[in-house]
Amino acid sequence: MYTSLMSTGPRNAAVKKDWGHDVSGCTILHIDMDAFYASCEVQRRPELAGLPVIIGTGTRSVVSAANYEARTYGVNSAMPVSRARRLCPQGVFLPVDMEYYHAISARVFAIFEEVTDQIEHVSVDECYMDVRAALHLWKSPVAIAHWIRHTVYERLGLTCSVGIAANKLVAKLASTNAKPDGMLLIPAARHEEFVHMMPVRAIPGVGPATQRALDSYGISYVSQLAELDEAAVIRAVGSSISGHTLFLASHGLDERPVVVHAPEKSIGFERTFSEDTRSARAVLDLLRVCCDETASTLRARHLLARTVTLKLRYANLAHVSRSYTMSVPTQSAAVLFSEVKRLLCALLPRASEDEPLGQFIRLAGITTSNLSDAQTTSIQETFDLDFDAPADMESSPAAQSSIHEKSKKTQSTEKALDVIRQRFGKDSVKFGIS
């Protein structure tokens, strides 16, 4: 027998209704574990059952997850832990234990793989599944969804919600509206009718900027978006790619296939300061660590990055980011730091003079994207490989020769650090901070 958790999010009864039983063409499942981190903790500590469980500790951290009991108090993920404590002082606050969650996730996905190997991992607790081939044995996607929900609960004591549709967009929206511990089938013939009931923000990928652009056109719901032709949608959002995707979504269409081995899209590292700071040196020192961590991960995964993004979060929780796409992809901490330092100085000019910054900084970090396989990417050697190299380098043959030798030594040093860390631990050696 399934346990049923209380959902506190707004639910539209018309969306949650039975949409019919025609499974023709409905070969895509979206599976989403319910309050996964918190549910894992309750399984580990049964005495927490029925209590509001919140994953996240420390006055400067954010909530990573909250179970449905905690959500009744208004606690949600990404909320500052300090605010969550005010809303739910009786809550059980636990630290994030990613090693444990990954271990449970592996067991969850092992169950999914008993159905098919056509699985696109979205995160530790979410995936898309193409069951077209599996239907030869299972006959119905609904039977598969029932078996998955039952088996995950019987073996692991966890619940999940499943959306069934003819494409990824509608399957995702269906599972969201089936939560918690539910299943929702949207027949292919009713996809457009279904999505028209949604706010535009429900479409995956629509963030605040896109919503603001659509707001200027008076568009809040997908049904309103569907009244525009594709050219008008493109003009509204200012992007041909995003506009095309949104136009299709407004009619319940999605061209994306289930990608079994999706390449990593980005790798990065960020950290919150123990106290808000206006020190440019402190920010740069942290960014140096972020570049080191990120570059080490890139090398471990045999990847090169062409785009680097600087991220800052201010004391008021507002955030800003700046990106730069390099002509030559890299996996070097030195190169990343050189570009991130330039981005920081362009964003906060006082950083270049090591003067107090105009605003207090709460968090700093970087993200690398536009990734490619290091073994198959053809690149020319770059000279800008020293942490403290000046922005304007001499172009004489002698200067370039000297820089070339320094670059080779820097790359060799970074790889040597990787070897030391593998043997003695990742914190055994770090780049010096001058």
UniProtKB/TrEMBL annotation:
CDD domains given for it? PolY_Pol_IV_kappa
Requisite cofactors = Mg(2+)
Catalytic reaction(s) noted: DNA(n) + a 2'-deoxyribonucleoside 5'-triphosphate = DNA(n+1) + diphosphate
Location of the active site: 126
Question: Could you tell me the EC number(s) of this protein?
Answer: 2.7.7.7
Q: Which Pfam families match?
A: IMS, IMS_C
Q: Which GO terms describe its biological process?
A: DNA repair; DNA-templated DNA replication; error-prone translesion synthesis
PROSITE patterns for the chain: UMUC (PS50173)
GO molecular function terms attached to this record: damaged DNA binding; DNA-directed DNA polymerase activity; magnesium ion binding
The highest taxon in the source lineage is Bacteria
Instruction: Give the keywords, sorted.
Output: Cytoplasm, DNA damage, DNA repair, DNA replication, DNA-binding, DNA-directed DNA polymerase, Magnesium, Metal-binding, Mutator protein, Nucleotidyltransferase, Transferase
Q: Where is this region: Disordered?
A: 393-415
- Quaternary structure annotation from Swiss-Prot or TrEMBL: Monomer.
Which family does this protein fall into? Answer: Belongs to the DNA polymerase type-Y family.
* Protein name per Swiss-Prot or TrEMBL: DNA polymerase IV
Q: Where does this protein come from, organism-wise?
A: Alloscardovia macacae
Gene name, per UniProt, is dinB
